[in-house]
Design goal:
There is one protein chain. The protein is 36% helix and 25% strand. The protein is of the alpha/beta class. It has a single domain, classed as Rossmann fold, CATH 3.40.50.12710. Strands 2, 3, 4, 5, 10, 14, 15 and 16 form an eight-stranded mixed β-sheet that branches. Strands 1, 6, 7, 8 and 9 form a five-stranded antiparallel β-sheet that branches. A three-stranded antiparallel β-sheet has the order 12-11-13. α12 runs antiparallel to α13. The relative contact order is 0.15. Bound molecules: S-adenosylmethionine (SAM). The site of S-adenosylmethionine has 18 residues, from α3.
């Protein structure tokens, strides 16, 4: 719970709102769908997870068909993506027999929902990446990184200040700025994050996850496919937003009942990956990736046998996923692997 009359950095504030053990947003609420606050791609259409499954098999082929491979979803939500991927893989028995499914999930509330949905399938929930053996590991992060708390720094008269939130009575809040030593921050980050910036926005937890996963990939091979909404620009900006019942919400309102997220700066992720000595195979829009993987053809195929309303439903959902005004452009796919791998499937037409 928050204590009155003190101030905390923005990332701690977001952490309290979303992940407080007794009242945090993700610890008490199913945020997905009509009755929730937002909807994610796997819950819009199973075609999304089917395309990821086909891509996964192609990646496995590129790794020369390893006998065993681990597939790990970071932040499993309501378990829909893993469910649809397992169902798709059942049509490819050789691959299906090779893969082990894992979910890395923080919220006990969502874990329960995931376990119920996946009760008939072999999935293991892990608390640490050390539980994964050194078979090739493929991590999937759909809207995972945007859910991690961020810090913000702004430049005031040539000095850097960190954004804090002052907690007033009765859950009312205000921003305050506290001057800080950027050298210390940059030592922690590991590079000159402040170079040419007017504002800095980054997630210490994202850095930590990217480091742990990079270490794992170097030992075991594989990759991480990041799917998230974000932008490509060296200049960072303030992207923190709150969503409540499918509408934008002031981040100080509906504390712990509204989601708080940010956009991923993919240029920043590229710098972090370079520092971690891995390779970015590609970054492209959700539209390009899904079309390259054949989502239009698949939609045609499954809609053939359907009546008009069924067909309309499939294409309505497809549009949500790939239209540039919906999720097509803002959402991006980024694949990170070891340097010895060359794999462009999904990122350009094969
Ligand atoms: C925006 S949801 C996305 C869910 C799912 N991937 C989807 O596409 O529907 C973010 C998920 O990440 C989980 N999460 C957030 N922070 C986490 C952390 N530090 N460790 C593990 N899971 C986390 C949340 O509980 C939630 O399941």
């Amino acid at each position: 719970m928050l204590k009155n009359n003190r101030s905390i950095p923005l990332d701690q504030f977001i952490n309290k709102a979303l992940y407080d053990k007794s009242s945090g947003y993700y610890f008490k609420k199913n945020p997905f769908g009509k009755n929730g606050d937002y909807i994610t791609s796997p819950n819009i259409s199973r075609l999304f997870s089917e395309m990821l499954s086909i891509w996964t098999i192609a990646f496995w082929e590129n790794l020369k068909f390893p006998k065993k491979i681990n597939l790990i979803e970071l932040g499993g939500g309501n378990g829909e993506m893993v469910l649809q991927m397992i169902k798709t893989f059942e049509k490819f028995p050789k691959f299906s027999n090779s893969c082990n499914f894992f979910i890395y999930e923080k919220s006990p509330y969502l874990k329960k929902i995931q376990k119920k949905k996946l009760q008939n399938y072999k999935v293991k929930w892990i608390k640490s990446f050390n539980e994964l053996n050194n078979e090739p590991n493929i991590f999937f992060a759909n809207e995972f990184f945007d859910a991690l708390p961020v810090k913000q720094f702004i430049k005031i008269k040539n000095r850097w200040a960190e954004r804090y939130i002052e907690i007033l009575n009765n859950k009312s809040f205000k921003f305050v700025n506290k001057f800080t030593d950027m050298n210390l921050i940059e030592q922690r980050v590991g590079f000159k994050i402040s170079q040419k910036q007017k504002i800095i926005e980054y997630s210490p937890l994202s850095l930590k996850f990217l480091k742990l996963i990079s270490r794992k990939l170097k030992r075991s091979n594989g990759g991480i496919l990041i799917i998230d909404y974000g932008y490509m620009n060296n200049m960072m900006r303030d992207t923190v937003q709150s969503i409540y019942k499918h509408k934008t919400n002031n981040i100080f309102l509906n504390f712990s009942d509204a989601d708080i997220t940010h956009l991923i700066n993919f240029e920043l992720f590229k710098k972090i990956i370079k520092k971690n000595n891995l390779k970015v195979q590609g970054i492209t829009s959700q539209r390009e990736f899904l079309i390259n993987m054949g989502i239009l053809e698949r939609a045609e195929m499954i809609s053939k046998k359907l009546k008009f309303t069924g067909k309309a439903n499939i294409f309505y959902r497809l549009r949500k996923l790939i239209d540039n005004k919906e999720m097509g452009k803002l959402f991006k796919f980024m694949l990170i692997t070891n340097k010895n791998i060359k794999f462009k499937t999904g990122f350009k037409v094969d």
